[in-house]
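Example S7 (structure tokens).
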């Protein structure tokens, strides 16, 4: 699957992933290969990215996620450093 995490300022992440967990407004959920198409709002929280290189966490300030045809786009309002 291909993941992009985009903020108004920059492309924060782009790459191939095996799983992504996002902080959905109704609770966190995981996206795996061949996930159904979805658009969901996101709360402040952690985007947990799993790939062949291990695990990476990006803390976001709200936003929206779109999943379609194994492409995941996270449009985040911002990235929280720390």
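Recovered sequence:
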């Amino acid at each position: 699957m291909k993941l992009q995490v985009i903020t108004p300022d920059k492309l924060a992440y782009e790459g191939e992933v095996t799983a992504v967990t996002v902080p959905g407004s109704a609770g966190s959920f995981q996206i795996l290969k061949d996930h159904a198409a979805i658009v969901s709002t996101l709360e402040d929280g952690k985007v947990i990215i799993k790939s062949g290189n291990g695990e990476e966490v990006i803390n976001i300030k709200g936003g929206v996620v779109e999943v379609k045809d194994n492409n995941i786009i996270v449009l985040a309002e911002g990235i929280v450093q720390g």
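Notes on this example. The domain at 2-76 is CATH 2.60.15.10 (ATP Synthase; domain 1).
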